[in-house]
Structures are given as structure tokens and as C-alpha cells.
Write a structure and sequence with these properties.
The complex is a heterodimer of chains A (about 100) and B (about 500). Helices cover about 35% and strands about 5% of the residues of chain A. Chain A is built from three helices and two strands, in the order H-H-H-E-E. In chain A, strands 1-2 form a two-stranded antiparallel ribbon. The two termini of chain A are about 40 Å apart. In chain B, a hairpin with a 5-residue loop joins strand 10 and strand 11. In chain B, about 40% of the residues lie in helices and about 10% in strands. Chain B is globular. Chain B is an alpha/beta fold. The relative contact order of chain B is 0.14. In chain B, helix 1 crosses helix 3 and helix 3 runs antiparallel to helix 4. Classes of the chains: A mainly alpha (about 100), B alpha/beta (about 500). At the A-B interface, helix 1 and helix 2 of A face helix 11, helix 12, helix 13 and helix 14 of B.
Chain lengths: ~100, ~500
């Protein structure tokens, strides 16, 4: 499978990365080079093989279902959360107007 | 530099820790010597920011403890470099990207906190490939890192320190840090360690907490130490590892006493030689170093056995689907809203702001991988690419499981070539990716793996050997590494030109 400029533009839009025509043109052969190379995975017989999602056997832990069960990962840190925001106003993240 | 400071910067982790504990020198003297060495070495561009005050404060705390007769910690008095992928409270953390420029975390990563708790101090934040995506340290927004190594008769050509932990490898090789943290997603500790003639280990996935480490590919990312000896790596890994409730994939296992248990006697051990790693195009000197490595391990008492890892050739293409897929998801958080850069063109709406911010904030390689990841996860292509790659990953892991019936650890080259000049491969992403061909299989399988320096090639550049171990068997990896270290007697160091 290979991608054309329109497809790359669609992917860039999905990934929320603005790209002008020149960048899209440049990306097309680069992405196709990589995609053509990974095509070889199609040669592998994977009959009966489950896709791997975790490499080392482990179990998922559950914490107690109460507020701030673990103070290390608990809440009550609004100012710290907002400290690096490009625009923090009135205790909230500020963004451009979404609804006209 | 005075003789004392030059002597101090030649020391590694163990010698500094033991010397401070014995009172041969103070932790402050050590920190001052390394701070001075760092300040002189700006030509390497190994650090994005330096933090001499952090190193001095940690040293003073250790000296004060010693005066009171208190224990100094596993890393007591050792100043280290911190890869700028670890969140450090109040100290800029960028992942070498423009999008995080100026970001000062409100929290400390688990691994860095453990190192400070063990008595280490921080010399500064080390440069890397942007978001750890690269194998040459040429994708950093803050400029390339230059290796301290130069080719013999190479007309002073600037060489790559490897990547992504290139600031770490350069700093440790140049003796401006006795050790540094690295992270390894598909070779990012082992490949730069090999290029720079130093030692580095990626432990079993889950040994070191990922909490506070800027995420690249979460099912692969693993932190580890980079230093100049196997003993130093064992000490530092003990300080870094351990269960962390804040990381859902953290291993709830006790941290072994790797340093105290080191044993280079390999009698009764079987070392596997994977035939599929003998690839076309591999440098003849790399193959020679591999033969040398077999002889060293045989001399240490090990049996050398041939093994097969049949899916080796498919590991790298599987990695270049899985890692970008995870990256495209992880890097969605950089949106110009919560932290980091915001680019808000005039009259732009929210969606335009996202796209403008990410266009301005990410470098080319990062964009390339986000696009690949977005594509392979998109409707209609998910099964053909992503699911297929995850199945191949299962087969790569199964190859290793089957190999453990025949051997206790695996010996292979770390890289297919020695270091190359900066710029030599940067126009060709695919050729650059092939540099990690020997490193990626162990990453996909989550296995502990280490690179130790073996020999210098005919250009005077270091070549590394890689040892891969069973899950949780860092000890077996370190022991085989120690056996090689003792026989290789690698003591070459780059001549100071910076």
C-alpha cells in the first residue's frame, strides 16, 4: 500500500499537524519508503498467534474506590496542574472560543 | 584543571562512592570537579541545561551526613547527568523538543527521586534525540550532540554519539559525568553506549518506573544506567529500580543486590549465538569483535551454543509500526492547552491552534513518526499494520522463550557499524533505523540487555558487544558483561579536544 498527497494531508489533519503543500510533497516519498519496507511483515505466517499487548506478565492493580485513596496520585492540586499552562484563567485552562 | 580535579573526574560511580565514604575526598570536591569539567565541555553540546547548584547541594548534604556518621546511600556523593526525558521538579524538562521548551515540572520523576534519595546529585539535563526518536542525536531542537571520539586520521570530523541517549553517552565517555541516566525504547541506551565506548543496561521492562518519564512508546520505554563499568551500572541500577504504585506496569518485585552478587565465573552457563544476527552488510570488524566476545566468554567458563531466533528480520519493521503507533497516541497530549508551547494564529479557532502548535513544536522526525502511527492506527489499516505487527511481536518474544531452553544468555553485536559522522545518514530515515537492528528484538520482548565496550576498530572507534538475558535476570546479564569487561580490558578514552 502506498500513500498519495491527499492521503498524507488527511493523516496530518487527523494528527492535528498543520502542513503546507511543500511539506506534504516531501512527506509522501518518505512515508512510502517506510510503509513499503514494513510491508514485509505480510510474509509472516501468524496463524493462531494472539497479538501481544504486554511483554512481561503482570496484573492490573486496583486502588480503593475512595477519593484520594493514594495521596501520591490524588487530587487537590489545581495550581500545580495549571502552573505550566500557556493561558490559565480563573482556575481553568484558557482556550480560543469554540462556539461562535 | 588541577591534578586533583582531573583525577576525580577520571573516577567512576563505585570509586567516588567509596572514596567519599572513606574520606579520601569530599563529595563537594567531586561535585566541583565535575561542574568545572561540564563548564569546559560546551563544544560537545551534551547538556541542554546545567545545574551546578543541584550537584553542590546534594554533595553538601552527603558531606553533612558523613560528618554525623549517617549512611550515605548507594550513590552517596556521586554527581550524575540526567537525560532530559525525566521530569525534574523546577528544572526545565524538554525531551529536546521546542514544544516543551520552558516546561518546568511541578513534580519529580520516580527514577530521579530515587537517585537523589540514594545520595546522587544532578550536573544537568542531558541532550537527546527529540522525544527519544533517533539513533544519532541529530533530531534535538537544541542541536546535535558531538561525540568526544574522533576517527584516527579523520580530519576532526564530528562523529555521532549515538541516540537517543547521545548526551548521556557523550558526557560519560568525555569524563564530564561519571554516570548518566538513559532510556531505551528500541536501543537508545545500548546503541549510544556502544558508539561511545561505555557500558549501559536496559533492565527487564517494568523494573524502573516510567512515572515522570516523557512517554514515547509506553509498552517499550524503559530507563537504565549508563556508566563506564559493569559494577557502576549494577550500583546505579539498584538505586533506580523498584516497584512504584504510580506506574501501572511497574514490577512488584524486590530489587536484587546486583552489585554484591556480581560473579564473572561463567562455568556451567550456556551463551547462545543467534545465527540470524549474522546479517548481510554487517561490518567485518563487528563480526570479528563478536568472535572475540565468544572467546572471552569461553575463557570465563561458559559453553558457547548456536541458537536460532527465526523472526529476527521482522523485529525492526514490527517496531517501526508499534513504536510510532504508541507515539502518535502519547504525543496527542501536546496541544497548546495544558503545558508547553502554544501557537495561536490570529482569529484561529481551537482546532487551528492545535494544528499550528504541533506544526511549530515538533521536529521533522517526530512528525514523520506521528504520521506513520496515525496511519497504521486509522480505520481500514489497523489490522493490516498494527495487529499484524503485534502478532509478529508475539513471535519475536516466543523465539526468545524457545531459545532459553538451550542457553542462559545471548551474545550479539550491539550495532551493525561503529559511529558515523554527524550528517552522514540524516537524509535517509530508513538507513538510520537499521542501526537498531540488533537492539530492537530484546526491546520488543521486554528483556534485560546490556552493551559493554569490546575493542577499537581500525579507525580508533569503539565497538560494543550486547548481552541479552532472560526476564528478570539482570544478574546473568551483568555477570556475562563483567566477564567480557575483565578480558577486554577496554581502557581507551577519547583524547580531549573540546
Amino acid at each position: 500500500m502506498s500513500v498519495d498527497k491527499a492521503t498524507v494531508a488527511k493523516i496530518a489533519s487527523l494528527a492535528r499537524i498543520a502542513m503546507d503543500d511543500a511539506e506534504l510533497e516531501r512527506m509522501v516519498p518518505e512515508l512510502n519508503g517506510i510503509l513499503n519496507w514494513v510491508e514485509q511483515l505480510g510474509q509472516v505466517d501468524v496463524t493462531g498467534v494472539e497479538p501481544m499487548t504486554a511483554v512481561i506478565p503482570n496484573h492490573l492493580r486496583l486502588r480503593d474506590d475512595v477519593v484520594d485513596a493514594d495521596p501520591l496520585t490524588g487530587g487537590g492540586r489545581r495550581d500545580a496542574v495549571l502552573a505550566n499552562a500557556p493561558a490559565a484563567e480563573h482556575g481553568f485552562f484558557g482556550v480560543p472560543k469554540v462556539i461562535e | 584543571m588541577t591534578e586533583l580535579t582531573s583525577d576525580l573526574t577520571s573516577l567512576g560511580v563505585k570509586d567516588i562512592r567509596d572514596g567519599v565514604a572513606a574520606g579520601s575526598f569530599s563529595a563537594r570536591e567531586v561535585a566541583e570537579a565535575f561542574n568545572a569539567a561540564v563548564a569546559e565541555a560546551s563544544a560537545l553540546n551534551a547538556f541542554i541545561v546545567t545545574t551546578p547548584d543541584h550537584a553542590l547541594a546534594a554533595a553538601d548534604a552527603v558531606d553533612a551526613k558523613r560528618a554525623k556518621g549517617e549512611p550515605l546511600g548507594k550513590m552517596g556523593g556521586v554527581p550524575i547527568g540526567m537525560k532530559d526525558l525525566f521530569a525534574t521538579k523546577g528544572v526545565q524538562t524538554t525531551a529536546a523538543s521546542h514544544i516543551l521548551e520552558g516546561f518546568k515540572p511541578e513534580y519529580e520523576s520516580t527514577v530521579s527521586q530515587k537517585l537523589w534519595d540514594a545520595g546522587a546529585g544532578m550536573l544537568g539535563k542531558l541532550n537527546l534525540d527529540q522525544f527519544a526518536m533517533g539513533s544519532s542525536n541529530e533530531t534535538s531542537y537544541f542541536g546535535n550532540v558531538t561525540s568526544p571520539w574522533r576517527r584516527a586520521g579523520g580530519a576532526n570530523t564530528d562523529m555521532s554519539p549515538g541516540g537517543s541517549s547521545g548526551g548521556s553517552s557523550a558526557a560519560v565517555a568525555a569524563r564530564i559525568a561519571p554516570a548518566a541516566t538513559g532510556t531505551d525504547t528500541g536501543g537508545s541506551i545500548r546503541q549510544p553506549a556502544a558508539f561511545a565506548g561505555i557500558t549501559g543496561i536496559k533492565p527487564t521492562y517494568g523494573r524502573c518506573s516510567r512515572w515522570g518519564v516523557v512517554a514515547f512508546a509506553s509498552s517499550l520505554d524503559q530507563a537504565g544506567p549508563m556508566a563506564r563499568s559493569v559494577e557502576d551500572c549494577a550500583i546505579m541500577l539498584e538505586a533506580m529500580a523498584g516497584f512504584d504504585p504510580k506506574d501501572a506496569t511497574s514490577l512488584d518485585m524486590a530489587v536484587p543486590e546486583w552489585e554484591a552478587s556480581l560473579n564473572a565465573d561463567l562455568r556451567g552457563k550456556r551463551i547462545g549465538i543467534p545465527r540470524e544476527y549474522r546479517m548481510e552488510g554487517t561490518d567485518a570488524e563487528i563480526l570479528d569483535s563478536w568472535e572475540q566476545g565468544k572467546a572471552w566468554l569461553r575463557d570465563a567458563g561458559a559453553d558457547i551454543v548456536d541458537i536460532s531466533l527465526p523472526h529476527t528480520k521482522y523485529a525492526l519493521p514490527a517496531y517501526y509500526i508499534i513504536a510510532p503507533a504508541e507515539a502518535s497516541s502519547n504525543l496527542a497530549r501536546y496541544d497548546g492547552v495544558r503545558y508547553g508551547l502554544r501557537d495561536l494564529p490570529e482569529r484561529a479557532g481551537l482546532q487551528d491552534m492545535y494544528a499550528a502548535t504541533r506544526a511549530a513544536g515538533f521536529g521533522d522526525e517526530v512528525k514523520r513518526r506521528i504520521l506513520i502511527g496515525t496511519y497504521v492506527l486509522s480505520a481500514g489499516f489497523y489490522d493490516a499494520y498494527y495487529t499484524q505487527a503485534q502478532k509478529v511481536r508475539a513471535l519475536v518474544a516466543r523465539d526468545f522463550e524457545q531459545a532459553w531452553a538451550h542457553c542462559d544468555a545471548i551474545l550479539a553485536p550491539t550495532t551493525p557499524t561503529a559511529s558515523f559522522p554527524l550528517g552522514a545518514l540524516s537524509d535517509d530515515p530508513l538507513t538510520m533505523y537499521l542501526n537498531d537492528v540488533f537492539a530492537v528484538p530484546a526491546s520488543l520482548a521486554g528483556l534485560p540487555a546490556m552493551s559493554v565496550p569490546a575493542i577499537l576498530n581500525k579507525d580508533g572507534l569503539p565497538l560494543g558487544l550486547q548481552i541479552v538475558g532472560k526476564p528478570f535476570d539482570e544478574q546473568g546479564v551483568l555477570d556475562a558483561g563483567l566477564a567480557i569487561q575483565q578480558r577486554a580490558g577496554f581502557n581507551a578514552r577519547p583524547e580531549k579536544w573540546w
